[in-house]
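Researcher: We're teaching a course module on how sequence relates to structure. For the next exercise, students receive a sequence and then see the predicted structure as tokens, so they can try to spot secondary structure elements on their own. Here is the exercise chain.
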Amino acid sequence: MSVTTAPQARLRGHSQVILFSVVAAIGGFLFGFDTAIINGAVDPIEKSFHLTSVGIGVVVSITLFGAALGAFSTGWLADRIGRPRVMLIAAAVFAASAVGCGLSTGLWDLSFWRLLIGVSVGAVTVIGPLYISEIAPAAIRGRLSSLQQMAIVLGIFAALLSDASIAAALSGADALHFLGLPAWRWMFIAGVVPAVIYGFASFLVPESPRYLVARGRDAAARRVLQRLENDSADAAAAKVLEIRSTLDSAARPRFSDLLSRRTGFLPIVWIGIALAALQSLVGIDVIFYYSTSLWQSVGFSESASFGLSVFSSIVNVVATVVAILLIDRIGRRRLLLIGSAGMFVSLVVVAVGFSTATTVDGAVVLGGAWGVLTLVGANVFVVAFAISWGPVVWVLLGEMFPNRIRGVALSVAATANWTCEVILNLTFPTLRDISLSGSYAIYALMALTSWFVVYFGVRETRARELEDMTASVNASAVRSRRRLTRRSAAR
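Model: And here is the predicted structure for the students to work with:
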């Protein structure tokens, strides 16, 4: 009897973990949808509010500034009020901001609501990977943590598909469509639906057992562990003791815990910052946020450019599914190395392709075989990113830091990610005007740098419990202190 019921019971436990991970990942869908929906609303917003290019730049980029603020504060907040409560707050802000953007009357209130959307986006980039990594069993943690990226790309796809559908079906994004409101306003208001779902679902998920242990609530942590992994009471109690051994219960996590006198940040934090920064600096946003105007600039029609943007997002979704299937099979480190190599080669092809472009009647045109090769190169880049750096970086950031500093360290890394997003989006239009091929050459250099960072700085975390990785980091720190002690004695 026990032979047949044990696997079934464990499957039921994993089913609950999967369900709660999906709930946590809904925030990723909101992230993708609310950041990409602006793609189709820029022109009607500019006309409706009579904005200058500076005003449009503020509306588009202020979300990224808000995301950096949200990412920086979320780890600290999650360590004080808990993971599900942060999800609920983010959902409420998402919903209010969606309505606020849809009903805005001018630049300042639209910018305010876009800033709040950014704060929520930054929050979900931290809380999703943090929560999933803390509830998922080691054997399937990579696949479950990858759900965050899957939700993001589905959100981007939904936004781009919505924009393309409106452009094809209506006379324009500013056409009257429902209750007297222009269609672009309903693009924003539609974000209320997933936000409300996310908010209600946050009431259903249990608190992270590692958070509960850190707050001295061992009994509650044991109950959650039994619910998530279907462990016996004794096994759950042993797991609680293991978690507690990696925590300093006498002090709450602080930013100063990340610092080192010799290197500024602890080495593991620097690696996390580098991974998060390079994920942005390889230029993936250029494909998704500027793709429509980019393809128009090299000779494609408006309808074809919308179609290519949607196609790229479909490629992104399919490749992310592949990443979910592979991440717990071949490991995080190997996927990142493969992805870095693929991104570098494809970006070199795109850079060379754009260098062959000519100007005809004031428009940039890619002719001959290089037009096809450049399009293929751009989509190979999307595939290489989506099977590796898209999901794997957030998986690693959720599991590579010691238990005691995980929330704060993840916030710092996510802030670096969003800061680099701001830099990328602010510099690309200028770089494009100076040299389109040169801008892609810079992104290719970032991809090459990412390979070396992974090769020399990243350790494999596949199938390892979070407490095991904490012990490895602590052991490494002890060895470093011993080496310093021996050197001091020798002097």
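Model: If you want an answer key for the exercise: The two ends are 67 Å apart (CA to CA). Confidence is low (pLDDT under 50) at residues 1-11, 475-485.
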